[in-house]
Amino acid sequence: MIDKSRYCLLTLLFSGCVSSLALGKDKGIGKEDPFHSSDFPDGFMFGCATAAYQIEGAWNEDGKGENIWDRAIHTIPNYIDSNSTADVACDSYHKYKEDIKLLKDTGFNTYRISLSWSRILPRGTTDVINVAGVAYYQNVLKELAKNGIEPLVTLYHWDLPQPLQDIGGWMNETIVDHFQNYARVVFETLGSQVKWWITINEPSQVVSGYSSTTFPPNAGLHGVGDYIATHNILKSHAKVYRMYDKEFRPTQKGKISFSFDGPFVKPKTDSEEDARAAEQAMQFRFGWFAHAVYSSTGDYPPVMREVIDRNSLQEGRTKSRLPSFTPEEIEEIKGTYDFLGYNHYSTALATFGATGKSPSIDRDSNILFSVDPNWPSSSCDWLKVNPEGLRGVVNWIRKEYGDRIPIIITEGGYCDDGRIDDYERIAYYDGYLKELLKAIREDGANVLGYMAWSIIDNFEWGSGYSKRFGIHQIDFNDPQRPRRKKKSAEYWQQFLHPKA
């Protein structure tokens, strides 16, 4: 629960009775200082993020093809909490104008959306292009432009067309060409309306579907499938970046990059060993995908190569479970970014300790994770509130990949039961935004934007509709899917456009 003093502060923020923080007089940002969006750099992107599968619904309408989430949900009993589906979800396929109005009314200047690959290419390949699917996204982008909202568009947010998974999905190297062909269709049909692109969202989650049996496509190839899929994801990203840079950037003038996820990992204690554990955890979770793109040397983090090669040898393998890039591939992948997208929700503590007996990323990384019991909880077990972690991870990125690398926080948010009076969510955003501002103003971080997850409650993957992240509530029992403003939307309104 939020304490009374915090509640009073938030009430003042709602009423507009607190003046803006005078950063010109005091560069430091006090813990209880009121502040507004104007304290951030000019042109800062404040927006909300969504994903096609989580909000659109219309799962088989107007020519859309089946994807891996459709297949899993429709064929595996009890796969989702309460046997929920995303067949209708928020019905944003039909109600996108209403969602965009919510963004406009709240005061956001950016909307991060994803495209459904199977809505545009029902078979995953370019032999069949769904004109209705392309038209839908063209209409969404037109509506955003009409309302003065900048689109930040993700090409892939987990919903792989099922026909591509039938031939191996991200484990089949042909996915590199399929992804490039899909991206070309998107750039040709939508590129003139978009200046900000993300190729692949949260690759660590994508590849978990090839190691686990609880995330599509449920391959269950621990410590093998995820490494192979990662290899192809990195090559796919690079190929699309190089294509955009050469063929589309000269006329469309856009920027394109990756979006990663994961907690900021701190040492569990002040010991040197735990400090090494925290760094190793960051390399195995974040560096696994980012090092090849953002580091000066490219390739996987050296610690991953050393550990996985050694473990593979000890397992009696003649070849490492971690694939190798050719020198040409390392150069092709390295530097394929215009910014760094990062989804940040929480923080974890690390100490060394092998997990499990079978080969896996967890066993390879040799990390035991925990949390500080003093950190406030949310309705999601994995989400503990530690605002300082956002500042910490921004500075870790700067240290690891370069001091002035442009960063966009492409997701961040708080999980609860969907209540209207969501004061804990307000406290979450208030704390995290203040820490982000410290990273910018006090540390000199080059942060371009922050995307709140999310503008509306939506389908939360395995949790169905039992976990809510929206600043607007949706009644999923009502076929009309009515939207209703929460207190957190009022907080954002006042933060973005404080009353005089």
From TrEMBL:
Q: Which SUPFAM superfamilies match?
A: (Trans)glycosidases
Q: What are its GO biological-process terms?
A: carbohydrate metabolic process
Which InterPro entries does the protein's record reference?
GH, GH_1_N_CS, Glyco_hydro_1
This entry's Gene Ontology molecular function terms read: beta-glucosidase activity
Has the keyword Membrane been applied to this entry? Answer: no
One Pfam annotation, family name? Glyco_hydro_1
Assigned keywords, A-Z: Glycoprotein, Glycosidase, Hydrolase, Signal
The record's Gene3D superfamilies line, in alphabetical order, gives: Glycosidases
In the record, which residues are listed under signal peptide?
1-24
Q: How does it assemble?
A: Homodimer.
**Entry similarity comment:** Belongs to the glycosyl hydrolase 1 family.
Name this polypeptide is given: Uncharacterized protein
Q: What is the scientific name of the source organism?
A: Nezara viridula
